[in-house]
Design brief:
alpha+beta; 4 helices
Amino acid sequence: MLAGISRTYQPKDEEGEQLPPESTRVQVKAEDVLRDTAVTLTRLFDVTATKDWANCTARADVKLDGRVLVADVPVSYLLFLEKQLVDLNAVVRKLPVLDASESWAQDPSTDSWKTEPVRTLRTKKVPRNHVKAEATEKHPAQVEVYYEDVPVGYWTTVKFSGALPARRVNELLDRVEKLQQAVKFAREEANGTDVVDRRVGDAVFGYLFG
């Protein structure tokens, strides 16, 4: 398609066979390919440049309860924050929670939570004899051995846990979700920044293919 040809025929003798000329036109020119490539890519270069330049200038404050938590945050970092907060939300939701069926109190000596002492009885099985039939002159006594649980002491049990109260987990989850909303709002505000169209493609391809 890039190649063409033109040829004519001349017989050796005047009486020789006459043949018509043959030709094939060039269908594709490299310069045209370059020009079309430049036209196609110029738009891509311009759109990408406009977006990236806008991302450099698009900024907003992350605000919580009317207070600026992080000021002048670039939109690219706001996107990063949004992703990280999704992961943190999942982490908080998986935090271990103290068993609600127990009563817990903080124990400064172990820096953990503990229950009130619970006293339970410890028993031991002691063999006993039950005489089913008294001995006679002809037969020995019929004795059945059985075991009786006899109290021998007391266990005092205190449970410890490194888990968190449900109240604390809910508080943390509330904070994460509030920050997620604040970051989302800041990103939307940053994306609302006026965008200036950037014309980069003409300069690049003007140099490359000019």
